[in-house]
Write a structure and sequence with these properties.
Layout lengths: L1 H36 L1 H5 L7 H13 L21 H5 L11 H22 L6 H6 L9 E7 L10 E4 L6 H10 L4 E5 L3 E5 L15 E2 L2 E5 L5 E6 L4 H5 L5 E7 L4 H4 L2 E4 L5 H10 L4 E5 L2 E5 L10 E2 L1 H5 L12 E6 L21 E5 L5 H12 L4 E2 L4 H5 L17 E3 L4 H5 L3 E6 L2 H14 L7 H5 L2 H23 L3 E5 H6 L1 H11 L6 H9 L20 H20 L13
Parallel strand pairs: 14-16, 14-17, 15-16, 17-18
Antiparallel strand pairs: 1-7, 2-4, 3-4, 3-7, 5-6, 8-12, 8-13, 9-11, 10-11, 10-13
């Protein structure tokens, strides 16, 4: 009996040890998984961790495709997609290459990123006095510090040029940018925002109220909440002058009364383009107009819209005229100064009753269309995703929840019945698939403004990309035609060629009234900061004949579907000849 009891006791002890070991192993595995899933939160656990580090990790996550739901929407060509209008009624797409199990995880991570970002932005608590004293207005900054000023977003004094950088903003970066644009003052706010102008703000504030540390430079002050740290950068302008861009806009017929058309003027013997541009830049006007020895400054208006240019030879005789009245034509130059008549933007004061999507296939110009819509309407656009790089370029709707209804419309690349039926109406932006595929491939490997390398184009990723994304281009349009409740079809090429008429259609669809001068301002700022930089490959043809055959079949299918819904078909340049 004693021996049996001893054996039972020994067994229970071993079982206890085994259970303890298994429990410990389970907890360790769970902890490792939790740490892996929440590594960004852990990195931001202490107040000493910088925003730069967190955003860098977030960018890294986006780079591997974890948080981009567009990766789910990459179906292979389906057998029924090319049948014609039957495909519109019942598109059958092979889902093997877009696993559904990723959808819930991507959605969860997208929400996590959005919450993390809100916390980053809202973390604007005043710094401790000791910490503030440690900050400096940095003697190495070449500009002269003018003081801390109140920043009124409704009546902003420094509104000549505006840009943001949540990761790398420094005082020197803002100063150089304003100097290159020929402004006298540079102001910084919220640690990440830069404003330029030629007039100091009217109201000064206490020095300690400018207490936001620059996001890209520890120990330096970049304004505060509704406060501007202002620097005079005039001494930098001599060095920056050689880097300024004065763009020739063309030769135009002069308006009948130049003094009524243009707010500022100068008569100067031996007038040069540089002299006129410098004069107009100081006056904060985007146009410098030269007729003989006369220099005029102003904006594009209904009386001088810059739409009807003429032969440049007619302007070549203008400088030699003995009397300014004899000159019927004038030379027009774009100064480095930004046209600010359409740069003011805000969120909707009341929630929109109509939930509008700005839908497109990736690479179809959605970001550029958002730039045009925001400047035309004066309201921010939202996004189904989060892109810190776009927020840095002024798209403040990026940080707003896409269902807040505080934005005029919401960017999306999604397709499918559920995602489409969430919206009451949509602007469907369509671009030539050949151009869209190349633009999205460039974005994937070089960001919004770069170009993929030769190595990328020659790799096996490019054929795989075309095979999967080409069918997505077609299915995206077909799904929106089938499930969209109210659609405005806009072709990227038409918008580019006839900007103001097409933009008017888009603004009317959004139920917003705008002035002609505001639309002309948008046209004057049409490119924004969205042209790709770097050397563009000439006569570059990445598509094989097999790829062309595939894409051309999709083009014909989409064209037939559009006409079947009584929309205008695809532009002729899409359709294979």
């Amino acid at each position: 009996m004693a021996k049996a009891f001893f054996r039972l006791q020994k067994f229970l002890r071993r079982t206890q040890f085994l259970l303890f070991f298994l429990t410990a192993a389970y907890l360790m595995a769970g902890s490792l998984l939790l740490l892996q899933r929440t590594r960004l939160v852990i990195q931001q656990g202490s107040r000493g961790t910088s925003l730069n580090q967190a955003l860098a990790v977030a960018d890294e996550m986006a780079g591997v495709g974890i948080a981009d739901p567009r990766a789910v929407q990459s179906p292979r060509p389906g057998a029924r997609l090319l049948v014609g209008m039957d495909a519109l009624q019942e598109p059958a797409l092979d889902q093997r290459h877009s696993p559904r199990w990723l959808a819930s995880r991507n959605s969860e991570l997208r929400q996590l990123r959005r919450r993390w970002f809100h916390r980053f932005i809202s973390d604007q608590e005043p710094m401790q006095t000791a910490g503030f004293k440690a900050m400096k207005h940095a003697a190495e900054h070449k500009g002269t510090y003018m003081g801390c000023f109140t920043d009124d977003s409704r009546e902003r004094t420094l509104k000549g040029a505006v840009f943001y950088d949540l990761r790398k903003m420094t005082v020197a970066h803002c100063q150089e940018a304003c100097a290159e644009r020929a402004y006298t003052y540079a102001g910084l706010a919220y640690g990440a925002e830069c404003y330029c102008g030629n007039t100091l703000p009217a109201t000064t504030s206490k020095p300690e109220e400018c207490n936001s540390e620059c996001k890209g430079e520890k120990g330096s002050v970049c304004g505060g909440v509704n406060r501007l740290s202002v620097y005079r950068v005039e001494e930098l302008r001599a060095g920056a002058r050689r880097r300024r861009n004065v763009v020739y806009r063309g030769c135009f017929r002069a308006p009948e009364n130049l003094t009524d058309t243009f707010p500022a003027s100068l008569i100067q013997p031996n007038l040069t383009v540089e002299m006129c541009s410098e004069f107009c830049s100081k006056k904060e006007f985007p146009l410098a107009v030269i007729r003989g020895q006369e220099c005029y400054c102003g904006y594009p208006t209904g009386r001088f819209s810059l739409r009807d240019g003429t032969d440049g030879l007619r302007c070549s005789r203008t400088p030699n005229t003995s009397s300014p009245a004899e000159g019927k034509y004038c030379l027009v130059y774009q100064t480095p100064v930004q046209d600010t008549r359409c740069t003011d933007r805000k969120f909707l004061t009341t929630k929109s009753k109509v939930f509008v999507a700005l839908s497109s296939f990736p690479g179809a110009g959605n970001t550029w269309a958002r730039h045009l819509i925001e400047h035309a309407t004066g309201y921010y656009t939202g996004s189904y995703y989060f892109d810190g790089a776009l927020y840095n370029k002024g798209f403040k709707g990026e940080k707003d929840h896409w269902r807040s209804r505080r934005t005029i419309c919401v960017k999306t690349h999604e397709s499918g019945k559920t995602e489409i039926e969430m919206f009451d109406s949509a602007i469907l932006l369509i671009r030539n698939p050949y151009k869209s595929l190349m633009a999205e491939f460039n974005r994937k490997y070089a960001g919004h403004l770069g170009y993929a390398t030769d190595r990328n184009w020659k790799s096996k990723e490019w054929p795989d990309f075309v095979n999967s994304y080409a069918s997505w281009w077609a299915s995206h349009v077909l799904d929106w035609l089938k499930y969209g409740k109210r659609l405005l079809i806009v072709h990227y090429e038409d918008l580019k060629q006839s900007l103001i008429p097409k933009l008017k259609e888009m603004v009317e669809f959004l139920n917003v009234t705008v002035t002609e001068d505001r639309l002309l301002c948008v046209e004057n700022n049409r490119d924004g900061n969205f042209k790709r930089s770097g050397a563009k490959q000439k006569d570059f043809e990445p598509f094989t004949q097999e790829m062309k055959d595939l894409i051309n079949r999709y083009i014909l299918t989409v064209d037939e579907a559009l006409r079947g819904r009584n929309f205008t078909g695809l532009p002729r340049e899409y359709v294979p000849r």
